[in-house]
Amino acid sequence: MKSIVVQNLLLNSKVFILMKIIYLYNKNAYAAFKAAYAHLKLRTYEDMTYIKNNYNEEGNFYYLGTDVELNEVYLLYSKKNNYILKNLLQGFSSLYDEEILIMDLDNKHGKER
């Protein structure tokens, strides 16, 4: 993930804070993929084998696109407990002055900032 300083962008008289939105999963790739594509308002692949074959490498960020507010949307697969990974992501985001939103699809509470 490249380090870019968070920018305030004036667009149509609104100030947007650009952030990285990360859909994190370790059990259900299909649900993460569907949630991220729904966020982007795109049609998804219905073939589960495509998702299993292309979004299954642990630790890789899969860039899916930019939403209407210019936030970058990613998928991230983890085989283990996501607690440590979320702490690392939040630490790196603070270190590089990045705004992130982690959508943990295996967590009962859902999202974390």
Features:
113 residues; alpha/beta; 5-stranded mixed sheet; two-stranded antiparallel ribbon; 3 helices; 7 strands; 29% helix; globular
Describe the protein in words:
- By secondary structure, the chain is α/β, with parallel strands linked by helices.
- The protein has one domain.
- It has three helices and seven strands.
- The protein is globular.
- It starts with 7 loop residues before the first strand and ends with a strand.
- The N terminus is likely disordered.
What order do the helices and strands come in, and which of them pair?
Blueprint: E1 8-11, E2 14-17, E3 19-25, H1 29-40, H2 48-54, E4 61-66, E5 72-77, H3 82-95, E6 99-104, E7 111-112
Parallel strand pairs: 3-5, 3-6
Antiparallel strand pairs: 1-2, 4-5, 6-7
Quick overview:
The chain is built from three helices and seven strands, in the order βββααββαββ. Mean pLDDT is 78; it is low at 1-13. Helices cover 29% and strands 31% of the residues.
